[in-house]
Design brief:
The chain is of the alpha/beta class and about 375 residues long. Helices cover about 45% and strands about 10% of the residues. It has twelve helices and eleven strands. Strand 8 and strand 9 form a beta hairpin. Helix 7 runs antiparallel to helix 8 and helix 8 packs across helix 12. It comes from Streptomyces erythrogriseus.
């Protein structure tokens, strides 16, 4: 039955009901996560001897549910955890007092939150907590605005491609080729603007373009797939899911751990969050500099396994996790195993050159390359 065949009063009633409903859904989807943004089990490291870190950990736990604390033996291990995207930052307990390590490339919003929270919870009254940005964001885009704002245009591009393929009657391999070709062109345009013009993303141009293309293809494939299963209603369902759920719930502007539950979890199951721009860049634009230090693209979005696309991964080789009730989980020892100290590392091992790149002395017997 065509909508025009309905009585006039029913068509007017449909407009009066449908439009306010869509507006209410859009406001709820975008305003609710923004209004309820707060830390929820944000991975944070605490480094130092167990006896010295216990008071700091106790102070941080006063904000119930805010932080998921990870223990590390020293500052070097905490830096490695930040660079490997296990945590967003770390509090290092030194003889001079606590020191905060952050990674603004992973999330400028979380880095700012850690500076405020650690200064209030872990620092002594009236004492400023020294802060070091281990993995800073790009100088041309310190707030990560380019990555954050790219989620919506790529979602729109994916929706448009899926709708066009369906309405044009393309099927099978022809439809797949059309979706892949349009995604490749979108990726090339997005990389030209963000990488070549704005200089907001480092790394290889082709890697950036491929990342944008895959993010677009994930959305367009989902929309076209729903249309193939459900017909024309699948187009509307796919567009609503990507625009009103996937986009605001992706956590690209902050982090999935900053969104109210279950928004952060739901967002990571949809393409804008699970394969969105910020986390996808973090996974695919991994490049090493010097002695193993990573660029800001190495951790942006922090899309590791187990934490969702927007946050650090949860892998722990030995450590324990502190529950909010004070108990610990895991089989690792509270005191991490002591690493053998070679003569080359007797002076601390880790050295930082004038460019800020960390290098570590390696024992001659351990010169064989190893994969990370």
């Amino acid at each position: 039955m065509s909508p025009t065949s309905l009585p006039t009063h029913r068509r007017i009633a449909a407009v009066l009901v449908l439009i306010p409903t869509l507006v209410a859904l859009a406001l709820w989807a975008f305003a609710w996560p923004a209004a309820r943004t707060a830390p929820r089990d944000v991975p944070l490291g605490v480094a130092g001897p167990p006896a010295a870190t216990a008071p700091v950990a106790h102070q941080l736990e006063q904000r119930e549910g805010a932080f998921d604390l990870h223990r590390y033996a020293d500052e070097a291990e905490a830096r490695d955890a930040i660079e490997d995207r296990e945590v967003y930052g770390a509090v290092v307990v030194t003889p001079q007092g606590p020191k905060l390590l952050t990674a603004s490339a992973a999330s400028p919003a979380v880095a700012q939150l850690l500076q405020q929270a650690v200064a209030h919870q872990a620092g002594a009254p009236g004492q400023a907590v020294p802060t070091e940005d281990v993995v800073p964001a790009a100088a041309s885009d310190p707030r990560g605005a380019v990555l954050n704002t790219s989620v919506l245009p790529l979602a729109l591009a994916g929706i448009g491609a899926g709708v066009a393929v369906t309405l044009l009657g393309l099927r099978g391999l022809v439809a797949v080729g059309a979706l892949a070709g349009s995604a490749a062109l979108v990726g090339a345009v997005a990389a030209t603007l963000s990488h070549s013009w704005l200089d907001a993303l480092p790394g290889n141009w082709w890697a950036v373009a491929g990342t944008f293309a895959l993010a677009t293809l994930a959305v367009s494939g989902a929309v076209a797939g729903l249309a193939a299963l459900l017909g024309r209603p699948g187009l509307g369902l796919g567009a609503l899911l990507m625009m009103l759920i996937g986009n605001p719930f992706s956590g690209a502007a902050s982090a999935p751990e900053m969104l109210p539950e279950p928004a952060g979890v739901i967002g990571q199951w949809l393409p804008p969050g699970a394969g969105g721009v910020a986390p996808a860049i973090g996974r695919l634009l991994r490049r090493r500099v010097g002695g193993g230090a990573r660029t800001h693209a190495d951790v942006v979005g922090g899309a590791g396994t187990g934490r969702g696309a927007g946050g650090p991964r949860r892998a722990r080789p030995y450590g324990t996790r502190l529950r909010r009730d004070g108990t610990r989980t895991g089989t690792g020892s509270l005191t991490p195993p002591v690493r053998p100290r070679t003569p080359a590392a007797a002076d601390g091992g880790a050295r930082r050159d004038p460019c800020g790149i960390t290098t570590r002395a390696i024992h001659p017997a351990r010169q064989a390359p190893r994969s990370r």
